[in-house]
Write a sequence for this structure.
């Protein structure tokens, strides 16, 4: 009789531990998803600004076709990027292409002074700030989630339960650390 | 300690303090039931619950009234609102808190609201005049992590709890002092009850203040994490510490909300031990807060603050 109670007690405790731990993993995974949605919204906003920007510059510098093509391609790449890593790469590519576009714009004082262009430039800077804020949050959620499913005992059951490591939003060759958390992600 | 560890240990201690409040309430109700009357204990608890509920529900408008925080029009201070927006995205808040301005030359900020989605951040005009963008961002991140950590909720609860406990203790004390005949028990237990009724409000205040101090460390750590920049928070604290002006609206019931305490006079740590006189402070000493950030971030603040243009210039406000 006593043995039955002990075994029963152990089973109940294990069950409770499992349920609590599982729910924690689900919560962490949902946080990662929300974090990604935040970035996605801002990336979308950024690529929505591009056509207007290209048109604005084209109005003053129609012959700079190579630059427009490059920006348009980079934008398409961003829209079709699958997964955080690829999206970060494409976003980086767009930044480089936009850098060229703004370098071209430098040569046209009328363009630089135009209300429309200034507004677009302003919106773009704001979106870039928001992307980097959203990225900090997303990367910290990824770090928490990955650490959780790589720790004992969850490392043993995470895969069968459908929990996979998530990708950081960081471009290849990105030297900046995913986030300053002062503790190592294992 | 790393930031994550700090956050975890802060959560744990906050939990203990809340438990302390609940215990204190139970002990008081138990004393009344034991010494006086069980039905009186129930009535008192009901009054306390009603009082507490009213306090919670009216806290939002009460805080706005007491601090004089003004809501902004849709076109006002766009760069500042953009900044708040970005910080709250970095914190992963679902909704950006509303921004309110307190017209006061002392640099300070606070957060209020019971729910994350219905909260607001108040900043003084003095803060905008004093802080460069990087430090202002840190102060706002501090307030936003108060909202994210549900501190605004917890602290409102703590204030209400402390009030309720004072109320119950008062009722209990008066019933014993003036209602001699309705007493059930006598002797030692009455003496114990009287001592309990006198000490309980102090214990509640002590708990409330220690809870408040915990939450400050937690919000500092949170701000550093949101911005990935612990130095910015430390710089902002140093700047606040050096500023001699204190807030006009500072009173003891709202003191816990501000980023820098408007009421604490004693700010001393000797040999690493908090002195007795600072046990009733709402905020930990600024030095200790800066030291915690320095430990977590692995840096040392320079002796002199960098001279930067205040954010007010970017907003087009006159100094």
């Amino acid at each position: 009789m006593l043995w039955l109670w002990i075994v029963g007690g152990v089973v109940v405790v294990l069950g409770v531990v499992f349920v609590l731990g599982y729910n924690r993993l689900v919560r962490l995974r949902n946080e990662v998803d929300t974090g990604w949605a935040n970035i996605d919204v801002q990336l979308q906003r950024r690529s929505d600004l591009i056509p207007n920007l290209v048109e604005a510059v084209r109005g003053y510098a129609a012959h700079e076709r190579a630059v427009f093509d490059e920006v348009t391609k980079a934008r398409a790449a961003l829209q079709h990027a699958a997964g955080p890593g690829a999206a970060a790469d494409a976003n980086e590519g767009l930044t480089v292409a936009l850098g060229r576009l703004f370098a071209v714009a430098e040569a046209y004082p009328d363009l630089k002074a135009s209300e429309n262009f200034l507004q677009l430039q302003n919106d773009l800077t704001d979106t870039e700030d928001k992307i980097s804020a959203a990225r900090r949050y997303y990367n910290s959620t990824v770090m928490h989630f990955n650490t959780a499913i790589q720790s004992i005992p969850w490392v043993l059951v995470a895969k069968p339960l459908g929990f996979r490591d998530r990708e950081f939003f960081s471009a290849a060759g990105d030297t900046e650390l995913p986030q300053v958390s002062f503790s190592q992600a294992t | 300690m790393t930031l994550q560890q700090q956050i975890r240990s802060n959560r744990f201690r906050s939990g203990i303090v809340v438990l302390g409040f609940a215990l204190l309430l139970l002990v008081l109700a138990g004393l009344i039931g034991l010494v006086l009357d069980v039905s009186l204990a129930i009535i008192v608890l009901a009054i306390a619950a009603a009082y507490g509920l009213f306090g919670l529900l009216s806290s939002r408008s009460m805080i706005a009234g007491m601090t004089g925080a003004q809501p902004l029009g849709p076109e006002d201070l766009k760069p500042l609102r953009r900044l708040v927006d970005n910080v709250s995205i970095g914190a992963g808040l679902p909704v950006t808190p509303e921004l309110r301005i307190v017209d006061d030359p002392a640099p300070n900020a606070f957060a209020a609201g019971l729910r994350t989605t219905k909260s607001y951040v108040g900043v003084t005009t003095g803060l905008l005049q004093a802080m460069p963008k990087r430090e202002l961002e840190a102060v706002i991140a501090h307030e936003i992590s108060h909202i994210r950590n549900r501190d605004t909720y917890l602290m409102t609860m703590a204030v209400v709890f402390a009030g309720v406990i004072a109320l119950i203790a008062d009722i209990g004390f008066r019933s014993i002092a003036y209602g001699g005949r309705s007493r059930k028990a006598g002797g030692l237990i009455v003496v114990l009850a009287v001592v309990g009724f006198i000490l309980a409000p102090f214990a509640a205040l002590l708990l409330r203040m220690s809870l408040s101090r915990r939450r400050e460390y937690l919000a500092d750590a949170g701000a550093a994490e949101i911005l990935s920049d612990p130095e910015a928070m430390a710089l902002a604290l140093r700047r606040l510490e050096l500023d001699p002006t204190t807030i006009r609206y500072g009173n003891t019931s709202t003191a816990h909300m501000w980023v820098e305490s408007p009421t604490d006079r004693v700010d001393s740590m000797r040999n690493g031990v908090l002195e007795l006189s600072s046990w009733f402070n709402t905020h930990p000493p600024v030095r200790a807060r800066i030291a915690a950030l320095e430990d977590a971030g692995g840096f040392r603040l320079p002796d002199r603050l960098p001279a930067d243009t205040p954010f007010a210039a970017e907003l087009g406000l006159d100094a």
Remarks:
- The interface with chain B takes residues 31, 34-35, 38, 42, 126, 129-130, 133-134, 136-137, 140-141, 179-183 of chain A (CB under 8 Å).
- Confidence is low (pLDDT under 50) at residues 177-186 of chain A.
- The CA atoms of residues 139 and 178 of chain A lie 6 Å apart.
